Amino acid sequence: MSLQFPCPSCGKELRAPDAAAGKVGKCKACGASAVVPSRSGAAPESALAALADPSSPKSTKPIPPATERQKEYARDLDVTFPDDINIRDMSTLIDAAKEKEDAERRGELDRLSDKESAAYARIRDEILEEIDADDCRLSTATIEQIIEALEEREIAAILLAGPSDPAGREPVQCTVSFTSDLSEEAVAARLLESCCAMMKRTHPAVARLLEDVIHGSV
């Protein structure tokens, strides 16, 4: 297993084998010296002393300058920086610019989502208004207007108009209307067929008698 610990200079996560515990290493990101801790998390006092000793070559080694690749990436992010910036400071600027860019993108996505939600709600309301308007026109239309609308759409139809809740056993008075492309004979035949179909489900014997009357058997 390997040891994981943050660089004390730039915070980048570093890895080292267990055998390197207590030794002084170098961060690949910023070049700073770092003591590899033990499994318990503590660094030996000798390693800390060597790291803090000004005469130690590791402690006096300067942080390398930023790479050209870092600088190119930073320019793409619109980051301004001095020419002599080191690799550690450049990493900090790049991380901050990326966080800002990500926050701006999340904000833009939230704004787009709000706009889409508002657009969908507006379209839904418009459709509901059209449906309500159609329902109102249909509920107030006369039989003649309905027939006319059906003929405009070239739809053959027969309309029966009567009381919606007839009471008692008195014969129900209905008005029969049909589109002009149907003859009276065709309408009569369709109505008889419909009556027979309904009677078959409720009164089969009456339905058979009605069929005999239609076909002239009785």
Mean pLDDT: 74
Give a short account of the largest sheet: 2 strands, antiparallel
* Overall body shape: rod-shaped
| Helix share bin | 40-55%
Global Rg = 44 Å
The proportion of strand residues reads 5-15%
Order of helices and strands: EEEEHHHHEEHH
Count of discrete structural domains: 3
List low-pLDDT spans.
Answer: none
- Compute the separation of the termini in Å: 102 Å
Number of helices: 6
Structural class: mainly alpha
Strand order of the largest sheet: 1-2
Task: Give descriptors for this structure.
mainly alpha, two-stranded antiparallel sheet, 6 helices, 3 domains, 218 residues, Rubrerythrin, domain 2, rod-shaped, 6 strands
How does this structure look, described?
- This protein is mainly α and 218 residues long.
- The chain has 3 domains: 61 residues, Single Sheet (Rubrerythrin, domain 2), CATH 2.20.28; 77 residues; 65 residues, no CATH class.
- It has 6 helices and 6 strands; from the N terminus they run ββββααααββαα.
- The strands form 3 sheets. A two-stranded antiparallel sheet has the order 1-2. A two-stranded antiparallel ribbon has the order 3-4.
- The longest helix has 54 residues.
- The N and C termini lie far apart (102 Å).
